[in-house]
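Model it.
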Amino acid sequence: MQHVLAENTKVNITWSKDLTECIVDLSPDNANAPVGSNSVQRSDIGKARALSGVSERLRQKISQWAYIQRSLRLYDGPRIYLYKPSRLISWTRTQAMNDAADIIAYSIIGGAGR
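Modeled.
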């Protein structure tokens, strides 16, 4: 699970049965560390409840048996928070590349007005 990241990048992943939170911290004072098993942790009870609440707000019922489960991306200075369902399809290498492209595009185009 080793990946090449920019210098000064720190990644922390917290997961629950409903939602997974990924925090990418690009602060200049971070020591660059590879993403590994020590970067991934199961949420404690309080965090699991919070993630469950966020998950409920991201879910939309469109018919009796159909739901849309959205993701959430928050930008807070040098930190990017990703909230996605805890399904394997949301966390593939391909999805990571798509997320990275979206974040870069936002930083270049959408974030220009910040």
